[in-house]
Design goal:
The chain has a 7-stranded parallel β-sheet, with helices on both faces. The chain has a two-stranded parallel sheet with strand order 6-15. The protein has a two-stranded parallel sheet with strand order 8-11. It has about 280 residues and is an alpha/beta fold. About 35% of the residues lie in helices and about 20% in strands. It has 2 domains: about 5-170 and about 205-235 and about 270-280, NAD(P)-binding Rossmann-like Domain (Rossmann fold), CATH 3.40.50.720; about 175-200 and about 235-265, no CATH class. The protein has helices at about 10-20, 60, 85-105, 135-155, 180-190, 205-220, 235-245, 275-280; strands at about 5, 25-30, 45-50, 70, 105-115, 120-125, 160-165, 165-170, 190-195, 200, 205, 225-230, 235, 255, 270.
């Protein structure tokens, strides 16, 4: 039976990925940085405590000597500008993943970010150059390049899928994100919801669909390289918020233009989905 390990298993995306994995005939090892009392319970999931920044020499064994690793762990979010992303997170995650591949890991899926593209506008394709303008985007992009170099040095002894995540929403999202902020405002009975002008175009996916996609990609165990995990459809932030308001059957009014647009993102960008579609067709 295939063994799949997952880091960041109690995070926003990780909980949904774990739920999707648990539906399948797999041995699953879920890793968290520290013990969590309310962690989900599944018959085919074993929980382990593992800090990427201080992994013991037997880390591969601790993770159940997995056939596949889904690596979602990353600290310092949602502060995308924090220097800790490349000063602390980057070297820790590279050392951790290098150790596992040296110990025998053969297939790896790592969560990347659309912020690796920087200020590029329009439909973003995996072959586009990356020019990140945030510490987080730079750290992720550098980790990808390091792992690609490691693959070449090892003559591709391990397969890697670099899953570039775009914008997600759903249950368990960090409270500072727009979707949970809106839900909280509706639950409080607020008359108005403050937001930006909302005209920026983004690529949104429900986190449940993101999780299903990540699991499908990981279990293929192919050396896919960079893959945009996205809808492929641009939507304005305003239209998404209006949709969520309707779904919650709320009459809350939108106070548009209260917040400025982020200066680390272009006004209009979304992911090209062609490569993802081809990979998902592989049986």
């Amino acid at each position: 039976m295939t063994t799949v390990a997952i880091t960041g298993a109690t995070g926003f995306v990780g909980r949904h990925v774990l739920d999707e994995l648990a539906k399948r005939d797999l041995n699953i090892v879920a890793a968290t940085r520290r013990p969590v009392e309310d962690r989900p319970r599944y018959a085919n999931v074993t929980w382990v405590t593992l800090d990427v920044a201080s992994v013991p020499a037997e880390g591969f064994r601790l993770l159940g000597q997995p056939d596949v690793l889904i690596h979602l762990a990353w600290g310092g979010l949602p502060n995308y500008r924090a220097l800790t992303h490349f000063e602390a997170e980057l070297p820790a995650h590279y050392t951790f993943l290098k150790q596992l591949t040296e110990a025998g890991l053969k297939s790896l899926l790592v969560a990347g970010t659309c912020l690796e593209y920087g200020l590029r506008s329009g439909a973003l394709v995996e072959t586009d150059p990356t020019v990140p303008v945030t510490s987080y985007g730079l750290a992720k992009d550098t980790l990808r390049r390091q792992l690609e170099c490691l693959q070449r040095d090892r003559e591709r002894s391990f397969a890697m899928t670099w899953a570039r995540l775009f914008f997600m929403y759903g249950e368990g999202q960090a409270s500072g994100s727009i979707y949970p902020q809106l839900k909280q405002a509706i639950q409080r009975g607020d008359a108005r919801f403050r937001m930006s002008g909302g005209e920026q175009l983004r690529d949104y996916l429900d986190v449940v669909e993101v999780a299903q996609t990540l699991v499908s990609l990981a279990l293929r165990r192919v050396d896919a390289g960079i893959v945009n995990v996205c809808s492929g459809t641009p939507r304005s932030v305003r239209s998404m918020v209006e949709q969520w308001v309707r779904e919650h059957e709320s009459e809350i009014a939108l106070e548009l233009g209260h917040y400025p647009y982020p200066d680390y993102e272009p006004m209009a960008f979304w992911g090209a989905r062609d490569k993802l579609e081809r990979l998902l067709e592989i049986q």
